[in-house]
Amino acid sequence: MTRITELEFARIVDGIIEDRATIVKHNPVGTDEEILLWMLLSCLNSYLDLAEAETPCFNGKPDAATYRNAVKFVIDARREGEFDTDRYLDRLSSK
Which residues fall within 8 angstroms of residue 17, CB to CB, at 6 or more apart? Predict the structure, then answer.
């Protein structure tokens, strides 16, 4: 089972922030925060090689809070060491 360190999580978040304009431009459905959190969840899905049973499912139209909770759910299950996930997620919602 692949685990994720704070350093690697920070690197992924930093990359998304660096590419924010391009990511939002090519994914025009939803708010910027929803789009960036969706991208983070997708990156984590790939990086951690989540099984179908580990991948969060959504009912209805997900919003930023839904994606944020899904990211935290995934990180909580695969985190190596303790770190404050919210600190990084907050950076995705600021401009």
Answer: 36, 91, 92
**pTM for the whole structure:** 0.93
Helix (H, G, I), strand (E, B) or coil at 4: strand
Least Cα distance to 6 among 89, 93, 95 occurs for: 89
- Which string of DSSP letters, residue by residue, matches 9-42? HHHHHHHHHHTHHHHHHT--SS-HHHHHHHHHHH
Residue type, 25: K
The pLDDT tens digits of the residues spanning 27-80 come to: 888 999 999 999 999 999 999 999 988 889 888 889 999 999 999 999 999 999
| 3-state percent helix, strand, coil for the chain, nearest multiple of 5 | 65, 0, 35
Report which residue type is found at 43. C
